[in-house]
């Protein structure tokens, strides 16, 4: 097995070849494999994914890779927290079987020229504000799923649009890995756990913790039959009143396709939001 640059407290691989050697050995033994992709800076939400993965398969692979293709030039690629040693310790304690930690040059070697363009659930919402984002997510997830060849891959529902995009990607490209969404892990105040929460000051944390409550109120109004456009508008205004600097969107969508809705429908819906506190962008969602 090839090793990462640092000594780590659990088995690890840094290349597709090293990863595949380990997974092939498990396959020969008849063992199933679950995969949890992350960008590191692990928190309880990530560890919840690993915990669920242990219920889904005999072996668990977790990747740590800060994917440059999903960051725009003005975003926080250079400052995004990188804590590989700590992450490895947490994964070892969570009984993860293998850490996969490739470098950017391994994932995107010289001459790399492939892009993936997506419609469907990738349209609108995040794409309106980060048009580069899902192209970057799609290419790295396609590569990771092809490298790991897991039976199941687990993604948090906090990034709900991303979850729907990845499910569509796997279906459209006939990737046999089953895509599973895991409910969002929250702190005691209802704030969705995120690596970027580390950027928030204490005052900003107090404001951020109001987001989930505003979405709950909006979901209740939508279920009661209030006009969707009014619910979306009122919720965005309430968030600004709470102290958010600006709101990128509050949207109620079909839960499967993420198609816009003019009125509430008798099938699962989802309310999604993105808002800014200083330099930190927060996203959250919940079922309607």
What does this structure look like?
By secondary structure, the chain is α/β, with parallel strands linked by helices. Helix content is 38%, strand content 18%. The protein contains ten helices and nine strands. It has helices spanning 16-28, 44-56, 84-93, 104-107, 126-129, 133-148, 160-172, 202-208, 211-223, 228-242; strands at 12-13, 33-38, 59-64, 98-100, 152-156, 178-182, 246-254, 269-277, 280-287. The strands form two sheets. It has a six-stranded parallel beta sheet, sandwiched between helices. α7 links the parallel β5 (152-156) and β6. The chain starts with 11 loop residues before the first strand and ends with a strand. The model has no long low-confidence stretch (mean pLDDT 96).
Q: How can the largest sheet be summarized? A: 6 strands, parallel
Number of strands: 9
Count up the helices.
Answer: 10
* Shape label: globular
| H-E order | EHEHEHEHHHEHEHHHEEE
Helix content: 25-40%
- Average pLDDT metric: 96
Radius of gyration: 19 Å
Name some characteristics of this structure.
single chain; alpha/beta; globular; 288 residues; three-stranded antiparallel sheet
């Amino acid at each position: 097995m090839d090793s990462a640059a640092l000594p780590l407290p659990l088995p690890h691989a840094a290349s597709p070849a090293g990863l595949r050697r380990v997974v092939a050995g498990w396959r020969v033994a008849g063992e199933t494999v679950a995969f949890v992709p992350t960008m590191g800076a692990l928190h309880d939400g990530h560890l919840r994914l690993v915990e669920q993965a242990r219920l889904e398969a005999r072996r668990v692979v977790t990747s740590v890779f800060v994917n440059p293709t999903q960051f725009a030039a003005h975003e926080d690629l250079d400052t995004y927290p990188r804590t590989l040693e700590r992450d490895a310790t947490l994964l070892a304690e969570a009984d993860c079987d293998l850490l996969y930690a490739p470098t950017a040059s391994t994932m995107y070697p010289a001459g790399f020229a492939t892009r993936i363009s997506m419609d469907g659930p990738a349209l609108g919402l995040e794409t309106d504000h980060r048009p580069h984002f899902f192209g970057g997510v799609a290419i790295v997830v396609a590569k990771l799923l092809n490298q790991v060849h897991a039976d199941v891959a687990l993604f948090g529902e906090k990034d709900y649009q991303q979850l729907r995009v990845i499910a569509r990607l796997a279906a459209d490209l006939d990737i046999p890995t089953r895509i599973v969404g895991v409910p969002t892990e929250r702190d005691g105040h209802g704030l969705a756990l995120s690596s970027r929460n580390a950027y928030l000051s204490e005052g900003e944390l107090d404001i951020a913790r109001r987001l989930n409550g505003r979405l709950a109120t909006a979901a209740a109004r939508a279920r009661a039959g209030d006009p969707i456009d009014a619910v979306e508008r009122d919720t965005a205004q309430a968030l600004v009143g709470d102290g958010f600097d600006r709101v990128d969107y509050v949207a109620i969508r079909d839960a499967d396709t993420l198609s816009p809705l003019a009125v509430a429908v008798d099938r699962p819906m989802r309310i999604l939001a993105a808002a800014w506190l200083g330099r930190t962008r927060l996203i959250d969602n919940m079922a309607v």
